[in-house]
Every structure is written in C-alpha cells, then in structure tokens.
User: Fold these one by one.
Assistant:
Number 1:
Amino acid sequence: MKLRFLIPLLAFFALVGLLFVGLSLDPRELPSPLVGKEAPDFDLPELHNPEVRFARDDMLGKPALFNVWASWCVTCRHEHPMLTELRRNGVPVYGLNYKDTRSDALRFLARYGDPYSAIGFDESGLVGIDYGVYATPETFLIDRNGMIRFKHIGMITPEIIETRILPLYRQLEAET
Amino acid sequence: MIAEIGLFALILAFLLAIAQGTLPLIGAARGDVALMAVGRSAAYGQLVFLGIAYAMLTYAFVTDDFSIAYVANHSNSLLPLQYKISGVWGGHEGSLLLWILILGFWSAAVATFSRSLPREVLARVLGVMGLVAIGFIGFTLFTSSPFERLLPAALEGRDLNPMLQDPGLIFHPPMLYMGYVGFSVAFAFAIAALIGGRLDAAWARWSRPWTAVAWAFLTFGIGLGSWWAYYVLGWGGWWFWDPVENASFMPWLMGTALLHSLAVTEKRGGFKNWTVMLAILTFSLVLLAAFLVRSGVLTSVHAFAVDPDRGLYLLAFMAVVVASSLTLFAWRAGKVGLGGGFQLVSRESALLTNNVLLAVSAAAVLLGTLYPLFLDAFGLGKISVGPPYFEAVFLPLMLPLLLLLGFGPRLRWKQDSPTEQLWRLRWIFGVSLVFGMIWPFFVGNWSFLAGIGAFLGLWIIGSSLKDLVDRLRPRRESTQTLGTRMRRLGRSYAGMQFAHIGVGLAVIGITFVLGYDDERDVRMAVGETVEVGGYAFRLERLEEVQGPNFDADQATVVVYRDGQRITTLQPQMRYYFSQQQPMAHTSLHRGLVRDLYVNMGEELPGNAWVMRVYYKPYMNWVWAAVVLMTIGGLLAASDRRYRIRVRREDEVLEDDAKLAAADAVKPEGNAEPKPAG
Amino acid sequence: MRPLHFLSAPLLLAALGLPLSAAAQSGGPTAPPSEPMTFETEEQEVRYQRLIRELRCTVCQNQNLIESNAPLANDLRRQIALMVNDGAETNEIIDYMVARYGDFVLFRPPMKGTTYLLWFGPGAMLVIGLGVLGTILWRRRTQVGSAPLSEDEEERLRRILGEGGGDKA
C-alpha cells in the first residue's frame, strides 16, 4: 500500500470532523460587529409623547439595557415579563419601538405593562438599521460611556439573564 | 391500513436490502453460485416492495388521508390531482421514499441489463448497491418515515407549498434523483472492481453507459430546477450558487470528469486508479449533497426542515461509506498497471487536463460552499460566500477548459501534432474570434467578456461541426453513402457532439443573459406604458380571477415593439386559501433570442401595482443546451458496443427474420443486407 | 403584504413546515408599500442594481436584497437607493452595511487573513493539479509505442466481454 493513497482518506476525515462540528452550530445566529463599539447616536420622538425627544445620550451615565421590540412581534410578548423582572432587579431598561404604529405599541404596553424608562419611536426602522437589527427582539447592554458591551438576538431567557446579563451588568456597575 | 401496509413493505424492502448487501458478496468471496444468485432476486423483490410502499403513500395523497402526518402536512383536499401525486415528494420524508424507490429501480436495472457480466462481478455490484440501499432505506425507516400516523387525524391538510404547485416540481426531483442515485451504479462498479482486484478496460466499458445515463439525468434534473426557479421565483434569477444548488453541481462536475476519464480507461487501459477515485468521489459528493440538504448545517432557501438526528445519521452513513471505500482504494490501488503510454500532446493528455480542470472546479465549489462553516467552526467569524465569489473563481477555470474543448475530440490517441491540429482549425478559430467579438454589438453595449463568451461558444460549436464534417468526408475508393458513414460514427460519437455543442450554446446563452439582461421595478397604473430592452409594456387592465385553490389579482400587459403588438402577458398575484402569504405568478413570453417577463409586486394606492418587468436575452439557449447535453448523454449510453453482448442472440434471430421477410417481398433476392457496422 | 420568498425552492424542495423563524418576526404589519426606486442617472441605477445583488438579506435564508421581500430588505434597498442618490461611493455603502451587520452581509467575501484560503485556494489547487499532471505526463512521455493493452490483457478483455451468459438462473 502506498502512503499517498491515504491522502484522500485523511482529507475526508477532516471534512467529516468539520461537518460534525457544523451540526451543532446555528448558521442563522450572527455576531454583531457593534459589540465593543460605541452605540450609534440617535434622536427620536418618545413613544408615549411625540413632543418629547429621546436620544442615545439619555441612556448614558449608568449601564443600561436597550431593547428593540414591536407589538407585532410575537416573541417580544413572551419576552416581556423578563424585562419587567430585570427592571425589578434595578436594571434600567430603555426601548426602541421598531417599525410599529404608536397606537398598537401603546395598547401593547397597556396590556402587558411598561418596564421601560423611555422608548424611542422608530417608525421608519432607520435607527434599527444603525443598530444592525434584523430579528426582533434584540437586546443591547450599553455601559455608562455609551459603549455596547453585549448583544443578544432573540428572546432573553431567565438563563441568559442569570449567566450573561446580570453578571456583566454588576461588573459594569462596579467599573468607574 | 394504508400506512401500515406501506410501512410493512418498507420493512420488507429493508430486509431484502440486507440480504442483497451481504449474501452476494459472501458468495463472490467463496465462489458460491447460489449465494451470488440471491443478488438479482433480492434486487427485484426490493423494487416490488418499495413500489408498494410508494403506491400506498400516493394512494393516501390521492384519497386525502389526513390521518397520516406527512399527507396532512403536504396536501390539501382542494389540491389539483397532479399536485397530489407529485406532492408525494414535496417534503423530506416523501422525497426520501422517492429516492430509495429510484435506488431500487437502478438496482433492478443493473440486475436486468448486466446479465452478461461474469457472475462474481454482477454479484459484487449488486452487493455494493445493496449496502447503499441498507443505508438509505434505514435512514427512511428510522428517522424519516412518511407513514407516521397523526392522532387525531387532521380535518384538512396544510397544503403543499404553492411554490411547489407547478409542473416544474412534477419532473424536477425525479430527474435529479435519477441522476444522483444513478451514480451509485458507477460507484458500485468501482468498488466491485476494487474488491475483485480487477480494474481493467472491461470494467470501464461496463460502467461507462451507466455513468453516461446518470450524468444525463443529473444534467436534465439540474436544468429543470433552474428552469423552474427562473419563472417561479419571479425576479429572473436562474442560478444562485446557493449551497443546495452547489450540492448538486459538485457531483455533476465530478461526474463529467468521470465520464471523460472512463474513456481513457476503456480505450487505452490507462489511469485506472484515477478513474476509480473519480467514481468514488462522485458518489461521495452525492452523499454530501444529501447531507447538506437534509441536515441544516448550511443556510439555504431550499433546505428541508432541520432535524439534528437526521444530520447525524447521514453524516455517519457518509463517513462509513466513503471511509471504507477510500481505505479499500488505498489498499488495492497500488496493484494496478499503468496502461498504454502516450505523448505530451495526445487525446489522453487532453482528457486528463479536462479532468484536472473539472476536479479543481468541483473542489472550488466545495471550498466556497463549506468555507463559512469552516470559519464558524473555528470561531473566526461569519461570512457569506455568494455568486460574486463563485463567478470570480469559476470563470478562469472554465476558460482553458472551453478552449481545450475545441481541440480535444480531434486529437488522436497516443500522440498528435499540436501544430497540425492548430493549422487545421485556424479558420474555425479566426472566424469564431471575429464573429464572437462582433456579436455583442447586436445584443447591447459591447463588452470584452461578452465577446470572449461568444467567441468560445462559436469556437466549440464550430470545431465540433468541423470534426463531424472531416469524419464524414468520404475516403478515396469508398462507396459508402453519407447515411452509412454517419451511422458508422456511432452513437457514442454523436452523443459527444450533442453534449459539446450543448456546452457551446450554454456558454453563449449564459454570457449574454448575464451581460445584457434588463429589468425595471416600476409603478404602473392602468393605461401606463414602460420601456424595457426596446419593448413597450402597457398595462391594459387589472381584474380578479379565481383558481382551483386560490383567488388572484391579475394584470393584463400588452407588449409592443415599434408599434407592433408582440404578445399579451397575464401575471397574477395569487392568494392561496391555505397560505398566509400571497404568491406572485410570473407570466413570460419566450423567444429565440430573448424572453420577456412580467411579475406583479405589490398593490399601490390609486389602482396601480409595482410591476417587475424583465428582458432576458438568450435565455432559451441555456435550456436548449441542457436538452442537447441530456440527449448527448443518453445517446452515448446507448452505443452499440454496450449492447452487443446482451443482444447477441436476439440480434441473430432478428436479422434472420429480416432477411426472410426481405426475401419474401422481393423474390429476386436483391435485398441488400444491412452492413454490419 | 408582499410574498415572503424565503421558502422558494428552485433546486430542492422547500422547508415546508419550518417554523417561521427570524424572518417572520422581523417584519411588521406596518411595512409601507414599496414604491419603486428612481435614480437621476443610469450609472446610479446600475450601481444600485449591482449593490442589491451583492448584499445579503440578513433575515432571510440565503437571499440577496433584490430577491427578498422581507420588510428589512425593503428598508435596506430604500436606504441604499438614498445613499446612491446622495452620491455615496459604492465602497462607502458597503462599509455602511458591514459596520452594522458584519461581513456576513457581503456575498463577495472581503479579502483578509481569514479568507486568503478561500480566495487563493482554487488557484493553488489548480497549480498543484496541473503540476502533478505535468509531472506525470512528462515522466510517461517515453512510453509511447508500447501497446495500449498487452496481448495477455487484450485476450482477457475479449474473454471477459465474451463471457456472456453469467447467471441465467
């Protein structure tokens, strides 16, 4: 047996290994290029009151969650109690109401409660684009200086709160 | 009852596959004739039971048996009958059943048409096919049974995806699977030869027709898929370099290489190792395709519903098949002779260069398809690899291949003179270069790339025809008629000509449609006109129409050119009763050098719609090319020399009968006996 | 609402029964009807058409921006059209997209450390393939003249091919 005839076999095993690892990966989960960068600036009308403005800088000074949601988004409804829970734990939660109508959004809050300190009304979805939003809900953890430190796409679960969000939040809180 | 009968038949087929996959191989190793004979009966039995299972599922579709989960998920009582029948392969489980039915069909075909093979060889080939069948039937039975019951039964089915309610769906998957699965025959022959330790010209001759048939089906299947996408998707695209398309394209490229390499092995006894390797690789790529499509490792518009168990099963199956084949190869390959010698310039060299280029192309597609997965697995980020990459990589690989294609068929075996061949083709080369460069002026703005494409297409067609003419030119002292001379060239040669001219047409068509298609997304209200590609499209009226299982908005668009009315197009926006999403239904007018294509986008205020209007030049050339290549593959497979042994006895009788008949008609006895060519 | 084409299936059967994933959630009932984009110059139109073909719709399975009818794709098309009309360079628009969605949006992968293998792999394989072929051909060129098959082999081929009958049982 000549050794060179074994080359295809070795190459094939490498391929199988790769495909095996591939089975456990989710091809649809995207890392955000925004983590570690400054949160994009915006200045939007507030959801509750169009006369009031809500800007990125309003979130600074203290670490905060920035949650992208909409009333038409079913997962957001399931996620909602988690945000309320976080709020109860003392984490400030800001919202971005993404491509929604004001009346639908307000009805949603009236029904499920309003854990948000303030909500930007992004009717056109342009601020959403700036934040690289592609699948609501999405949640950003922004530090006191406006730096994005963590991003989660999809529903935040109790597990993610326990293992990722709260520890990081405490750490950011301790930073000076 | 129906589901249980189907399931039972499937289990019996599985048991027969186990018999077919073991006993003949043991028989061949021991020289036991009785065990070897099991292969054929098991193959026939398997086909019968797979046929029963398949018939049961079809029956359940036709009779709207929504107590079967698969039927409930993929059919609906309002679905037209033809889509109920084709809906059987509209989802993962049913399409897998079709796949194994076709595998059973190929096994039975081998058992029928290869009776003249030495019995050890036939036993081994059927044994290997049995092993493959164990894997696939087991996959169906253990992870993807289409006969699962739904309790309680659904009142109404969820309906077949409207995209799939199209004649394209009726033919595309069966053709594609005939191709995919057909390569298992070439694979089985290769493995049988490795087991028997006899890789010779006879082996190549036996596998060649099977390979050609599989290749023809795969070509046609891919072509149909593309043709279907072209008018179903509604934005004029027909090839997307999507992972699932690439999955079918890789075995096609490798199979094309195999087809050419088999020629060297058959005619010159050379490069046996390489040919066997290609047969193994081609089938491995088929298995990889099944894995990629059905496991969900890659994001694709076409992927089936994702289930990790299925992926794991297929990966394990593929690992076992390919690893054992490659081990067998490593063990046996060294013992094979070199075959006849040849010079640097010879048909052998040309065919091998073709092989290298095709194999590298397949490898490049593989690299591009799996690269995002590779980076992701190592945590190096997520990227997308799409059409711009594949076009950039593919073009430089195809250029030398297409140039070579003009020379290849003319080159003699062993050695040839490069200068002589160049000299003989100088006119063809010059004329196709000049006309190729001029042609784009008549299509649109001249571009170098379009010129090169047209040149290469003309060069291939021209040199192919020149070769034909040269071969038909009567030799001195020959009294043969043109018809006789044509027949003497053989179907194998005719097949090659068809396929090569098809490639030429494809190159021209693809170049022009990529370079000169035109489109507009426009707002159109009734009475408005828009100009695209020199044609005027006027929206005459909007109305509501009804189909069997949908309502639709329909637009009537009349197309004019220079004031002349060309055609009327009626695209629709369909609202299927069972679907939330409306679906656009394209209307198009096909022509020799251009297609016109209109699609409805979205309703706008003021009795207007967003209309997508397309001008697609030379699209039909691509489809014609697919048809020519398919015919070529089938012709090549039906060459006399592959049939001669099987038909020997009948032929003698047949000829006797013909002679007797001729004598009876013409008592003078001047009937001319057919030349034995 | 426009049809969501993410279930389209040209080459293989579609993902029927696939739970509506990210794509379904990212679109809202408020997606405004999309008026077709208009451009001031032909060159801008061409650039726009090329861009929306080379950029990936992130919510979809594997589609570019022109194929997709997801509302986000719609927004992005509009945004790109705006930027093109504002005179933005092609690479500025690409940078804009990459800054927000990462390299994933590019159907033409960027040339960088992690993609050298991707971009140069096919060329390298071609060089190696042709190199090996050349070496083999060069080594074997001296063997011309030997019969393609030895008499023995020829005889065996005849025997094998003539060995009809096989298993008639």
Number 2:
Amino acid sequence: MSGISTTQFSKYSAKVAKSRATSEPVWVRWALISTTLLFLSLFLFMPLAAVFTEALRKGFDTYISALADADALSSMKLTVIAALIAVPLNLVFGVAAAWAIAKFEFKGKSILITLIDLPFAVSPVIAGLIYVLIFGLQGWFGQWLSDHDLKVIFAIPGIVLATIFVTFPFVARELIPLMQAQGKDEEEAALVLGASGWQILWRITLPNIKWGLLYGVILTNARAMGEFGAVSVVSGHIRGLTNTMPLHVEILYNEYNYAAAFAVASVLALLALVTLVLKSIVEWHAARSARATEQN
Amino acid sequence: MAKKHNNVLPGFNLSLGFTIFYLSLIVLIPLSAAFIKTSSLNFHEFWVAVASPRVVASYKLTFGASLIGALINGVFGLLTAWVLTRYTFPGKRIIDALVDLPFALPTAVAGIALTAIYAPNGWIGSLLAPHGIKVAFTPIGVVIALTFIGLPFVVRTVQPVLEDLEAETEEAAASLGANRWQTFSKIIFPAIAPALLTGFSLAFARAIGEYGSVIFIAGNMPMVSEITPLIIITKLEQYDYAGATAVAVVMLVISFLLLLAINGLQWWSSRRNAAAI
C-alpha cells in the first residue's frame, strides 16, 4: 500500500500540473531572479553601501567631527527649517485641493488636476530659475525688495519657496484618488445629523484619510530635505547661512573632502532608509484599513 | 459652481478658492515669468540662445541618455516587477521596499555614491578600467545616473497590474495548448503593455529634468558630457538670465508635451482596462 490515498494523490498531481502550466521551469525562475538581483545590486545596493563605506573610510572620529562641524550643523538646521515650513503648507493645500476635486463636480476639473501635477514635470533647475526671475536683483520685485532691504534669493525665503515648489503635488496626488474612492456618503450623513463643515472635516474626513495623508507627508518630507537642483539655484551657497545639507555635501565634495562629504551624505541616506521603513509601515496599515472597510 | 445645488456638502468655494490661489502663487505665476522673460528676446536672440552648437549637443545628450536610461528601466523594471510579484525568495520584502530608494535618496547623495563606484578607482570602475572602459566622467556615466533615478517608475506602474492579472486567463491559455512563452507574449504582455509604456514615459520625463545625480558623475565637458539643466545653471552664473530662461522655456514646452502624453496614456489604459472588465 502506498502512503498516500487516491484523493491526496490526485490533489498532488493537480498541483504539479497547475504549477507547470502557469509557472516557469525552476531554472528559468532562478535565472530571472538572479538577473534581477544583479541589476538591483549594481544600481541600488552598491550605491547605498558606498555611501557608508566612504563615510567611515577615515575612521569613526573623522566621521563624527565632520558631522559636528559648525557649517554641517547649520546646514542641518536649515534643511529642517525648510521642511518644517514646506510640509505643513503643502499639507493644507493637499487637503483643500482633494476636498474640492473629490467631493464636488465642476468645469475644468481635469485641467486643474493636470496643473497640480505640473511641478513634477518641471526640471528642478527651472523651478529655482523662475523664482530668480521674480525675486532676483534683476527680477520683477528685485528693485522693490532691495529698496526695503529684503532678500529672497540667496537667502532662506528663496530656499523655502523652491522647496515648496518641488514638493507641491505630493499630498494632493495621494489624497485625490483616495477621497474619490471613498465618496461622500459619510460626510453627507454627518451633515444630516447636524455637523458643521469643520466638524465633518475633523471627525469624518481626516480620520478616513489619515494613512494616505501620512504617506503624502512622508514623501513630501523626504523630497523637501533632499532637494538639490532647485535649492542650488536660489541658495547662493553661502557657507553656514544658506547651505542646506545636500548643498553642503556638494561643497565638501568639490573641495575633495570626500570623507566629510560622505559623512553628511550618510545622514541623508539614513533619512532615506527611515523614509522607506515608515512608508512600508504606512502602506501596511493603509492596506489593512482598506480591507476592513471592504468587509463592512 | 453651477452644479453646486445638487451637492449639500459645505466648503466648495473655500477649498477651490484656496487651491487656485495657492496654485497660482507657487506654480502658475512663477512659471509664466519664464515665458514673459523669453518674450523680451527677439527671434534671432532666442535662436542664438537655444540653438548654439553647445546647447544642441546638450539636448542630444540629455534626450539620448534619458531615452537609453528609460529603455534599460523598461526591460529591467518589467523583470523586477515580474520577479517581485510571481516568485518567492529570501529577502524579497526588503528588496521590494528598497526599490523606492531612488525616490527617497537625495539626488546629490546618489550622484556622489554612483561616482565613487564607477570612478576608475571605484568598486566597478576598477574592474572596467583595465578593459579600457570608462564610465564616470563620460556620457555612459550620465546614462547610469539617469537609470538609477528612473528605476522605481516602471516597477511601480507594472507591479500592481501584474498582481491584479486573473490567473484564469493564463490557465485557459495553458489548457488550450499554449506554452509558457506564448502565454506571456500573447496574454500577459498585452495586458501590462499600457502600464509599461506609462512607466517608461514617467522615467523618461523625470530623467530629462534631472540635475543633482548627473553633475557629479558626468564630468560636465562642454559638447561631450554637459546636460541641458547644467547649461541653464552656467548661463545663470554668467548673468545671462534671458539666455538661461530661453533654454528653460524649450525644456518646459517639451516637458508639458510629455506630461500631456502621459496623462493621455493613463486615460487610454484605464479605459482599456475598464473595457476588459
């Protein structure tokens, strides 16, 4: 007698047949996986490893002193300030834009959505350039600003503006499809029960979109802290004053101070890794809450 | 606003008003400045600024390298998406999360890291140097950087489509006698082709404007490895604002056309998918 019953056997053979019909032979599978891993090693894992290897090449003490340098610290401070202004502003904009687009019908809606996407299509260098044309010394308001002793370009306001521009669509893009999918039944029910507009926003809409919102904020923050091209045009590269972290990396690198450049870069790389971890956590929660809604 | 009467929710005027105000202030008015500045040039000045040999060489490099980078991503992005959705292997979840690294890693960091690897004394550069292959500080370096920054686009547009593909159609194809390659080329590939094309165009559009990751590895030699965004910066540093803006307008127009094409593609593919269901 064989160890397996007929039904078990037929199940087993059915499984084998299925896997042969709708999957690839083992050697093909492993060839595809290895090719993918080789490609990703060349383009993803190696650059990441290189940042940390180069940063620690001259020892841990050099690494720490590069990070504790006064100019490095002030560049970190400026990067955080720019993100702290850009992220909340684009967050408020994202919620407002998604509310108007997802909850109401109006003419020109698809044009509005395309216009919101526009900053993604614009080269970061051009994003910096347009603010120079407006606020620079020879720009529209240049004379007026210098008469009043105000500086936008080659100063912090310009850096903040450029950062807002390049991170403009992230929150809105995340929220618009999410709120369109959720519809407006819950908000209408709250209205019937006597809730005011702000109560609906705080008690119904925001709790419903919290994972999408958080996702958008994480992406906005990562881009805001890492932006290089746009900020480079408007910053003026004044050490200790208008240098963000990515710009500080560039200055150190161009001075052949590679260990210090990679030390500051490693902080940004760590930030990127934290971003990826947070993103995965948020995606997991969002998928879970979407499943919970489906079951209800 | 005419349709407001059949919607009882409040806040339409406020939210749309703020959206349009903020959009105009941050994006539309500043972008219009580029077009207004360019209109101060006469046609001859404009043509000299945007069609001098050095600028034309930069267009060729920018568009050529972006196209090659996007093609590499089309092939390997499809492969990565396929492997991540169809197969299981150790470390898959971490690799899946790391695919987004080029979105999260600041471009300047990517630039110096890629340069460190592909420079003649780097991990890969030192392997290639004895064979006379130079990557860093040549146009090949530009392609490498643009491949890196475009990597997530194809994977992330193709992956969800592959996940949603019905197993039944593949089973039906197999039971009708199709071999695996026929099933892939006749059933699976047509279904994912629109997403693949969208991902390809997104990677291409992103690569054209890219600056931070390229300038470190490119070497930036005029006529050879100088990209168009760098031309804009160089002109700005020489206080040639009108010239910089004229080149910027050329790039803007091309980017807008690409954005329209991508939106059209997405509309077409969503309609195609809806029709299939």
